[in-house]
UniProtKB/TrEMBL annotation:
CDD domains: UdpNAET (cd01555). It is found in: Cytoplasm. It holds the Pfam family EPSP_synthase. Pathway: Cell wall biogenesis; peptidoglycan biosynthesis. This is UDP-N-acetylglucosamine 1-carboxyvinyltransferase. The active site is at 117 (proton donor). Its EC number is 2.5.1.7. GO terms for molecular function: UDP-N-acetylglucosamine 1-carboxyvinyltransferase activity. It catalyses: phosphoenolpyruvate + UDP-N-acetyl-alpha-D-glucosamine = UDP-N-acetyl-3-O-(1-carboxyvinyl)-alpha-D-glucosamine + phosphate. The gene is murA. UDP-N-acetyl-alpha-D-glucosamine binds at residues 93, 306, 328. It is an enzyme of class 2 (transferase). It comes from Aliidiomarina sanyensis. The modification 2-(S-cysteinyl)pyruvic acid O-phosphothioketal is found at residue 117. GO terms for cellular component: cytoplasm.
Length: 429
């Protein structure tokens, strides 16, 4: 077990290179299963979730090789396994993304149900219902989704009850090799959906209107291999920008895309940041103590739930009161009790967090509960007086590439340390 040890007080300054997007790389790695010749994917971030995805491909009997720091070649054979076991799925919810490709390619798939997690129940009923509409027979038994199609999947008109990112992605991948046209209505519009569509099209698929709420997919008979570069991580970008504003610093994020971050940049500006942007970079300059902001999370293009925790950390030390309403996940405020331990004044009322900024936080031992909660604790640690020890950092390693190295390069005082096994003192009765 490792922890991040943060000495507060440093202002972030300098340039940081943004990695490829986790939430685009994962579906793209899974979609490579559909190809009938090798696929090379560039700008893949070095993350635990990517390792888990590669392990899952390996478990399925799909060979892959690392070409360089961020480039991989996947070589999908004509025949391979179709079971995604609990041991791998339980460590990464995005494993559910193998369901669509396996079913479309092999005609059957068994994928462990991912189950609930810290931020909410996160059911996958929409994935299952959509595939049933495409002709799949699906049963859920012994904790597994067991899906089978008799012949090819059939195109269908699918209206999704709720906007679901991985649900839309799974159905897009299943539809890519189906017979006829699939229309997904009330589809997610996240940039990662567009990136997956571009990748599928680069392999010969016919996916249209990704990025709108109605996606049309004309099934094709085969997908070939090719090369693709994953889009930049908009959530990593946003996290660094919030960290810079919270520490009253000045940074430039490179290799990113400001167009993906409109809602976040708007809130940063409202919080007092001076933002300048170019085609693939964003600069943020602080103008003093940040001002608290109010926001509501909602599907893209509205404010992303994956940036909510970082803004709660910002509001904790900002001037004034900020009201944050979380509408996507029912339990995504696990960072709040930890931030309170550092002196933050945050009231929780149902799905709303009301923060009144304090002049200073104080360092404490805190515990990560999920990926973005971890990022918020690191940000809080950087502005707190004294030392903060952030435990259970395996959560942060799922989604941030070398976070402590990138922050240290910007001037943060942060190190990764091994945790000592807890010593239990025995007292004689
Ligand atoms: C790997 C990946 O891309 N993860 C992202 C993806 O997660 P993920 O795709 O799991 O999140 P969804 O968009 O599916 O979830 C949105 C809401 O829909 C509900 N729902 C979803 C599917 C379903 O079958 N039934 C159902 O009720 C969920 O419980 C949640 O309340 O989108 C989330 C919302 O932007 C992000 O926070 C995650 O970072
Ligand atoms: C919730 C997230 O990821 P996942 O869907 O992989 O759990 C996230 O990236 O913030």
């Amino acid at each position: 077990m490792e922890k991040l040890v943060v000495q507060g007080g440093a202002r972030l300054k300098g340039e940081v290179r943004i990695s490829g997007a986790k939430n685009a790389a994962l579906p793209i790695l899974m979609a490579s299963i559909l190809a009938d010749s090798p696929v090379t994917i560039h700008n893949v971030p070095r993350l635990q979730d990517v390792e888990t995805s590669l392990d899952l491909l390996g478990e399925l009997g799909i060979p892959h090789a690392r070409n360089s720091e961020s480039s991989y070649t996947i070589q999908p054979p004509a025949e391979h396994g179709h079971v995604a076991p609990y041991e791998l799925v339980k460590t990464m919810r995005a494993s559910i993304l193998v369901l669509g490709p396996l079913l479309a390619k092999c005609g059957h798939a068994e994928v462990s149900l991912p189950g609930g997690c810290a931020i909410g129940a996160r059911p996958v009923n929409l994935h299952i219902e959509g595939m049933r509409q495409m002709g799949a027979e699906i049963v859920v038994e012994n904790g597994y989704i067991k899906a089978r199609s008799h012949g090819k999947l059939r195109g269908a008109h699918i209206l999704m009850d709720t906007v679901s990112v991985t649900g839309t992605e799974n159905l897009m991948m299943a539809a890519a090799l189906a017979e006829g046209e699939t229309v997904i209505e009330n589809a997610a519009r996240e940039p990662e959906i567009v990136d997956l569509a571009k990748f599928l099209n680069a392999m010969g698929a016919d996916v249209r209107d990704a990025g709108t709420d109605t996606i049309r997919i004309h099934g094709v008979s085969r997908l070939h291999g090719g090369e693709y570069t994953v889009m930049p991580d908009r959530i990593e970008t946003g996290t660094f920008l919030v960290a810079a504003l919270a520490t009253q610093g000045e940074i430039r994020c490179t290799h990113t895309n400001p167009d993906f971050l409109d809602a976040v940049l708007k809130k940063l500006t409202e919080a007092g940041a001076q933002i300048t942007r170019g085609p693939d970079w964003i600069e943020l300059k602080s103008t003093g103590r940040p001002k608290a902001v109010s926001l509501v999370t909602a599907p893209h293009p509205a404010f992303p739930t994956d940036m909510q925790a970082q803004f709660i950390a910002l509001n904790a030390i900002a001037e004034g009161t900020g009201v944050v309403r979380e509408t996507i996940f029912e339990n995504r405020f696990m960072h709040v009790p930890e931030l309170r331990r550092m002196g933050a004044h945050i009231d929780l009322e149902g799905n709303t967090a009301i923060s009144t900024g304090v002049a200073k936080l104080t360092g404490a031992q805190v515990m990560c509960t999920d990926l973005r909660a971890s990022a918020s604790l690191v940000i809080a640690g950087m502005v707190a007086e004294g030392v903060t020890e952030v435990e259970r950092v395996y959560h942060i390693d799922r989604g941030y590439e070398s976070i402590e190295k990138k922050l240290a390069k910007l001037g943060a005082q942060i190190t990764r340390e091994k945790m000592c096994p807890t010593r239990i003192k025995r007292t004689e009765a």
